[in-house]
Request: fold
Amino acid sequence: MKPEKIGRIAGIGLRLAGRMAGQKLAGPAQEGTATRPPPAQAAKPNSPAAKTTGQAAGQRTRGVARGVGGFLRPFSRVGGIIWLEVTGVFFLLFVVVFAPLVWRFRPASIHGPYDRTFITSAALVAVFLYLSITSFLRARKK
Reply:
């Protein structure tokens, strides 16, 4: 199938879907009456007609929001899992950066003088390793 034909089919499908959605949101039209009043006969801001029109628009908006929320719910779960895994990898990168510093500045003996760089690097490796592991565990729990 040629790309032009695929584009035409997709465009026609989107136009039809948009038209059907617009008709569904507009509700059932009554015979012999227009769906919207002409501009000269438009309801005034504080009139009961304006109030009912606003309430109908609010109900349609809530319906659309509920439908979109229902559609996006599975994606939000997967997105949350991916977010936790990405942050776990990000924290693991810091462990990879600071672990060689711990090895390079390790004391010669177990009782020897500890360098400030060794202590700082060891603390950072411990913190970022903890954050990385807990992020992966939270992603697995979801």
Remarks:
- The chain has a mean pLDDT of 80.
- The helical segments are 3-26, 48-104, 116-141.
